[in-house]
């Protein structure tokens, strides 16, 4: 009985670290660009899209993290227990998506250093890749990753709050349109959900908890809170950026189509704001590089003892490959767009598997998954599968026109 409070105090840092790892994995270059572009298009009604995406995000993430924690297994192993071979398929989707996005993340880091120091983006990307690799070289890599994500997460939010205040957004209108939108954009909802809990992102924190040994029914209350904190952090950043962009465009100012987020910061706070954008872009990109590499490798490390033994080397190799592709070839825009759309479809597959696993005794033992969470999860699976398919059918062909 005496060990419970001690465990709670000891695990607090890990739980917060897992929350920030997931949140900062979501907050990448794509996150910044998507939020800016959709706000410019939908204006205050984009608040409704954010609200719906937050509800879906919480439902998906709390289900997934609880099932991972109570089973004590990573998602791919759970999937293989549900249906032999399914875990390998899920791992393939996640790793391919993680690698493609990491190329974009490395590019975003290069862009951030270019804004800050005026150096070539490829040089900045290379230096950022080296820094990310350094995190996994140190002995306490997990703790270093947690701290890194927390510090840069606070920096991103703090700087964006400053820009939001200077932009003077119409908060009242934003609140009204959040509940009574002028129009509803399904593509925007799928993109936001896919960018927050799609692909590898929702598993970043869940797998971090596995590595830290926070599993079992006793840990579920803390795990659930951590999962909600993670969505809260990512959503807070989304809302702050939304208001900053809304403040700028509401003044009749036009954003630079080549770099919409940068123009928001510059128009709102001048050259100082532009430099702030460089910091935010770099922080968002490099934390996403770390999260994508760690989580993608966590999806294959359990497949063999050799992969488990050398998982840290695999993570470093993942970052090296991402960096090399960007430096040598450049940013594969079409691949990133295609994988971004597919990301929205990975979620219903992954969540559907987890919900089945939640009711298999051989996976979760005597744990009883709450009925309301199962129903909530099933609604998300069906709705995201439909919206994701609709988006692919209507959005992908347009890319090739």
**Whole-number total of structural domains:** 1
Radius of gyration: 20 Å
How many distinct beta strands? Answer: 0
What name goes with the CATH superfamily? Amino acid/polyamine transporter I
Shape: globular
Would you tell me the overall average pLDDT?
84
Order of helices and strands: HHHHHHHHHHHHHHHHH
N-to-C CA distance: 65 Å
Strand residue percentage = under 5%
CATH architecture: Up-down Bundle
CATH domain topology: Amino acid/polyamine transporter I
Protein name: Divalent metal cation transporter
Pfam families: Nramp (PF01566)
Organism: Planococcus donghaensis
GO cellular component, one term: plasma membrane
Task: Walk me through what this model shows.
It is a multi-pass membrane protein. This is Divalent metal cation transporter. InterPro entries: NRAMP_fam. Keywords: Membrane, Transmembrane, Transmembrane helix. The protein is mainly alpha-helical and 401 residues long. The protein has one domain: Up-down Bundle (Amino acid/polyamine transporter I), CATH 1.20.1740. The protein has helices at residues 3-26, 29-42, 46-71, 75-82, 86-117, 121-137, 141-167, 171-179, 186-197, 201-211, 220-249, 260-298, 305-309, 311-328, 333-357, 361-364, 371-399. The longest helix has 39 residues, at 260-298. The protein is globular, with a radius of gyration of 20 Å. The protein starts with a helix and ends with a helix. Mean pLDDT is 84; it is low at 1-7.
